[in-house]
Write a structure and sequence with these properties.
Mannitol-specific EII, Chain A; 6-stranded mixed β-sheet; protein kinase activator activity; 155 residues
Length: 155
């Protein structure tokens, strides 16, 4: 299972997505995944939207973790975004999401997908991590903060 530093590359962080709907957010994040990881845009968007139809990926506290499995992807990978304004991802607390991690895994990555999802979820449950991401002033600052927080969690 890769560390978050490996899971979320610096070029896969989007600072302040300006979107009006969940679908616009997912499109922007899928486009970032195409640039960062070379995945297919339509397959990424289709898989992500299909998973969203099965049930909300909002986890509460202003966080959402949409996820999908993709043919041809070699290892789990993620896109991290801060949204402005927040968008409703139907979290259990009713709060719209402003921190979103799109987790992509290989089609056959059963346990690795679940481990990556758990790792992202565990990190974003921490109030200090959410506060730090919200206080960041750039994509680089968001990535650095996530990497440092992940390292401190593992220690």
């Amino acid at each position: 299972m890769p560390d978050l530093a490996d899971l979320i590359r610096a070029d896969a962080v989007v600072f302040r997505i300006k979107a009006q709907t969940k679908n616009e957010v997912l499109l922007a994040m899928a486009e970032t995944a195409v640039a960062a990881y070379g995945v297919d845009l339509s397959a990424t968007l289709e898989s992500t939207l299909e998973r969203e139809r099965l049930g909300s990926t909002g986890v509460g506290e202003g966080v959402a973790i949409p996820h999908a499995r993709l043919k041809g992807l070699k290892a789990p990978a993620a896109v991290l975004a801060l949204l402005d304004p927040p968008i409703d991802f139907e979290g259990p607390d009713g709060r719209p999401a402003d921190i979103v991690v799109l987790l992509l895994s290989p089609e056959d990555a059963g346990a690795d997908h679940l481990k990556a999802l758990a790792r992202v979820s565990r990190l974003l449950r921490r109030q200090d991590v959410r506060d730090g991401l919200r206080a960041a002033r750039s994509a680089a600052a968001m990535h650095a903060f996530t990497t440092q927080s992940s390292a401190s969690e593992a220690a």
